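thought: user wants a sequence for this fold. calling inverse folding tool.
action: design(structure=
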């Protein structure tokens, strides 16, 4: 199972037969964008309140998150059936009978000839929509329409998966680089503290006391736990991507935790100088990658 984006689009056009000669054409369109919850918006012709309730039930069964716009557009120009001009045909029959009587003819009127008269055949407009037939047809079409939408959302999800995995690789590389230079931080802390004590009291001071202070200071400034948690979060993130399903909220929470670790790492190594500057650069790179990932994750179902 792969992750799914909340961005998608699907449309279906239907010609609905209504009796022998009439038909009703309509277009059903659904668009989806990101949202924290499942937000459904329907644009239906008036008179379809019952259909909206059924549609909401279907959408809630098929989708989990996203802002969904469903639009039902009815082509009213197709709501017509073939008819004939009664006034014209009646006038034709009256004239035919009068001529037949006047000239003592035994022939009968030719209906085919009458219907070929200009204006004899015409379309009779039907102003009312057959809501029952329309509702039943829409309910038949909405399930395959949502399947089409989900296919597009899954395709978009595959692209997001590739982007996020590339981001995770860069984060893992940054964490590994920080781990490599971390031992230099302890040495740098000891040098700085020694320099300050020497400047304050001269070279004659308790060396053991300095080492104890350095050990305490380094312990407070140790970034090994932050690095360990960062690597753990990256691994968990990859597992969620592979598991797929409704992963968006979990991924967003993980990125918040990763950002917190990056902030703590930066606060502990700020102002050290030397290799500490390199750690600061890598930490800032990590925060930038995390922010990019958060933008992408907002669109995952």
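)
observation: tool returned 301 residues.
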């Amino acid at each position: 199972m792969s992750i799914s984006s909340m961005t998608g689009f699907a449309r279906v056009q239907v010609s609905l037969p209504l009796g022998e000669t009439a038909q009703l054409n309509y277009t059903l369109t659904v668009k989806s964008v990101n949202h924290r919850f499942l937000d459904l918006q329907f644009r239906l012709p008036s008179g379809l309140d019952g259909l909206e309730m059924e549609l909401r039930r279907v959408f809630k069964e098929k989708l989990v998150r996203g802002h969904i716009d469903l639009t039902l557009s009815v082509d009213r120009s197709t709501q017509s059936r073939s008819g004939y001009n009664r006034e014209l045909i009646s006038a034709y029959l009256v004239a035919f009978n009068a001529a037949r009587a006047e000239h003592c003819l035994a022939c009968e009127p030719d209906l085919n000839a009458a219907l070929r008269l200009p204006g004899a055949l015409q379309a009779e407009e039907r102003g009312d929509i057959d809501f029952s037939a329309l509702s039943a047809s829409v309910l038949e079409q909405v399930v395959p329409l949502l399947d089409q939408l989900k296919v597009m959302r899954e395709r978009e999800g595959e692209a997001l998966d590739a982007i996020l995995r590339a981001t995770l690789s860069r984060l893992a590389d940054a964490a590994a680089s920080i781990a490599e230079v971390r031992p230099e931080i302890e040495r740098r802390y000891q040098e700085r503290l020694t320099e300050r004590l020497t400047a304050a009291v001269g070279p004659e001071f308790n060396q053991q006391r300095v080492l104890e202070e350095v050990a305490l200071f380094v312990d407070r400034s140790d970034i090994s736990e932050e690095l360990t948690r960062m690597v753990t979060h990256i691994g968990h993130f990859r597992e969620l991507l592979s598991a797929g399903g409704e992963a968006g909220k979990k991924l967003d929470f993980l990125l918040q935790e990763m950002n917190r670790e990056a902030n703590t790492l930066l606060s502990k190594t700020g102002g050290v100088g030397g290799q500490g500057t390199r750690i600061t650069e890598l930490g800032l790179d990590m925060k930038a990658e995390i922010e990019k990932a958060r933008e992408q994750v907002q669109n995952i179902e």
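thought: summarizing for user.
answer: Here is the designed sequence. Helices lie at 49-62, 86-102, 111-115, 131-201, 207-220, 224-243, 248-269, 275-297.
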